[in-house]
């Protein structure tokens, strides 16, 4: 028995473009995620209690992982932009 692997029998799978994009997106996911009301509050410059209040009223985009309140930085930035645009129209 040979210890060398015949590459013709066991080719290394090449990643397609979709797999490469998914891998890159997952690398950015951890950097984009805020876990806990404290992290969200710090990122937005708000008191933690204000974050809980906004979430309870349905005013802040969020999701939960178990009991932990989470949000994506990119979602919060997009939401803030929408809020600013709506305020300009209303003014």
Describe the protein's architecture and organization.
- The protein has helices at 17-32, 37-44, 48-56, 73-90, and strands at residues 33-35, 63-65, 68-72.
- It is an alpha+beta fold and 91 residues long.
- It has one domain.
Radius of gyration, in Å, reads: 22 Å
Q: Tell how many strands the DSSP assignment holds.
A: 3
Largest pleated sheet: 3 strands, antiparallel
- N- to C-terminal distance: 80 Å
How many independent structural domains?
1
General shape: extended
Structural class: alpha+beta
- Unreliable spans are none
Average pLDDT, to the nearest integer? 84
> What is the topology, as strand order, of the major beta sheet?
1-3-2
Q: How many individual helices?
A: 4
Work out the helicity level.
55-70%
- Proportion of beta-strand residues: 5-15%
The H/E string reads HEHHEEH
